[in-house]
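Kindly inspect both lines:
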Amino acid sequence: KGGITMKFLKVGEITVDNSLTRCNICTGLFNLDQEGGVKGDIGILPVAFCPTCFAGVSDMCEQLCNHEEAQ
């Protein structure tokens, strides 16, 4: 009678199925094609960031660059 279907990932697994990706920061699921975000590698580490977390990381980087330029 109705219920919650949960999908579990193996350690290090980013893609849940063909449409959903798990964010490495908030662990939320998002659709890269429909919602945006980014998926790639940092060195040899596979990473994925949902749109919200990617915006936060981008903002943090911009603030750090501006801080370094001001010194």
In short: The beta strands are 21-22, 29-30, 38-42, 45-49.
